[in-house]
Amino acid sequence: MVLSDKDIKIALNNGSISITPSPNLKNQLGSCSIDLRLGSTFRVFEHSKRPYIDPSKKDYSNVITQEIVVLSGEQFIVQPGDFVLAVTLEKVTLPDNLMGRLEGRSSLGRLGIVVHSTASVFDPGWDGNCVLELGNLGRMAVALTPGMRICAMTFEQLSSSVDVPYNKKKQAKYVIQEEPVESKIYKEK
Fold first, then answer.
1. Which of the listed CATH numbers 2.70.40.10, 2.60.40.1120, 2.60.40.420, 3.40.50.150 matches domain 5-163+172-187?
2. pTM of the full structure
3. Active-site positions?
């Protein structure tokens, strides 16, 4: 069951869902979702330095990417065909009986901007800023401004609380992330 705007407000008020900084419900609350805003930190791939990505190498993603912090009042330009990691301004904490699902916003999708390539599900027990897998599918560059509404998160009630929430899993690779962390696929066995 997807939570309605009424249920999202209740969950925010009773603390079962925590979003920091607190969202402006007048602007960010939809009928069944809450808009999250774009943070100022991006991770870009330095494709001209390396011929390919080898996901099996430890910390290799960190070698082939560079972190960029956009200063207040400036914009980040996403070129056609670009793929960059970004992060939401808000930190989201989920309880053991709800999952979050990240979705793009139609207004940006109509410009060619997608916010996730595959990772739309945020497990129960998630605690951190959401990393966005931004892509520009269009033919024109698009300027993104930190603080703009970039995506929407919906919340789904599970049939019961999970046995092991994400923040308590030993193999969880992205616990309490605050920045667009590079891939940690090399940690998989």
1. 2.70.40.10
2. 0.87
3. 133
